[in-house]
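Lecture 7, part B: from sequences to assemblies.

Below are the input chains for today's worked example.
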Amino acid sequence: MNKITETDISFLRQAVALAEEGVRNSQGGPFGCLIVKDNQIIGKGCNRVTSSNDPTAHAEIVAIREACASLGDFQLSGCTVYTSCEPCPMCLGAIYWARPERVWFATTRDDAAAAGFDDAFIYAELAVPMKDRSIPFGFYHQEEFLTPFHVWAGSTRKEGY
Amino acid sequence: MNKITETDISFLRQAVALAEEGVRNSQGGPFGCLIVKDNQIIGKGCNRVTSSNDPTAHAEIVAIREACASLGDFQLSGCTVYTSCEPCPMCLGAIYWARPERVWFATTRDDAAAAGFDDAFIYAELAVPMKDRSIPFGFYHQEEFLTPFHVWAGSTRKEGY
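Predicted structure of the full complex, as structure tokens:
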């Protein structure tokens, strides 16, 4: 990771300001995110879980969706994600799928947990064998359930991601 | 986990059918998901990453958003998630935030990886120390960056999730 610059710090501060504004406007939890490419903000968001009845509307997801829409691409090549807090597992996964160049974050999963958010718990659950998870996960397989993968493999029009 | 029922298998089969249909219609990767409450389908989706330029548009995320919109709630209490493939870390995180009652899945992360999808890689990255990750994550903190958490703690209108 490169050393942080004054420009990076300024963007991080703006992500934190989005987080504060979101709470003051009753949008959702205290989290904000900015996505920057070539020094331009191309996506931003605050947490809107409760105001939009969408458990996936974390700041990072909102910002990634906006940035991708603005680029017309499902990848964030060359972008930097600035987020007010260490991403939860959902958002970390989203970041890996979007593949930005790097991520800066301003507070930690423990700060989030101390504020009452389950991030640390979900990180722990990911490492637990499926049978011991707090939400039961069941695997049931028939050979025919692989059909979508076979159709995918045989498709000449498929676009990977 | 309860023993799977014929009704569960029927819903799983429908999730797999959504996956196949999504590939045939060039929506995105070979994945589908259904969400059921009281034997009614309240949300469904196929992967739409490439067709909607949204790296977060995995089948489970699409279905969770639709189910929550239809319930007018950010929680999936009492719901069952049927998904054609073991959820990736992003979708697993989303499921934990949505808190359904249980999850059934029809194929595994290894099947997804064999088809060219990064699920297994992202699971591995989650367990790697931040400094060794393929996407660099940097932590930079100032005391003022905790302000959103303080505003949240002091808010009388906050709604947790």
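Note for the exam: The radius of gyration of chain B is 18 Å. Keep this in mind when comparing with the next example.
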